[in-house]
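help with this.
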Amino acid sequence: MLLRLCRVLNLVVLSVNTAHEVLQLQDHAFASWPALAIPWRLLYGCTDIAFTSHGAYWRGVCKIAVPPPADPARVRAYRGVREEEVAELVRKVEQQAHEGGDVVRLSELLSGFAKDVNGWIVLGVRTSGRASWRAKVDALLEESIVLLG
């Protein structure tokens, strides 16, 4: 299916067989893009996984950096992390509902939840409730947005 988002056409793949065809067999046709000036300057000559051109280097980086997204062992390994963080999120929603009345700002809570879960999984330490962690993530995101335009 071809989907237009603003001025950009996007290919949406809906079946496993088609995804295999696109991602494995026809990868060279879908993974090439022009070199962009800003990423070239900021990201070491476009050698990171997001901006490097298709080829042997890109395939090698992908094999190292991109684990299978739905690996059952990986999903099971982080079940405890997800359960604890969801319990903490529910506790915070209940607390804010009792304190503030009718309105609970879920955007703030869900943003913090995402940062905490990712922090725990990536760093291996619990980051819940650490304002310094969230501030660092926010600062990195803002800086990236400014640098990439």
In short: Residues 46 and 52 are 5 Å apart (CA to CA).
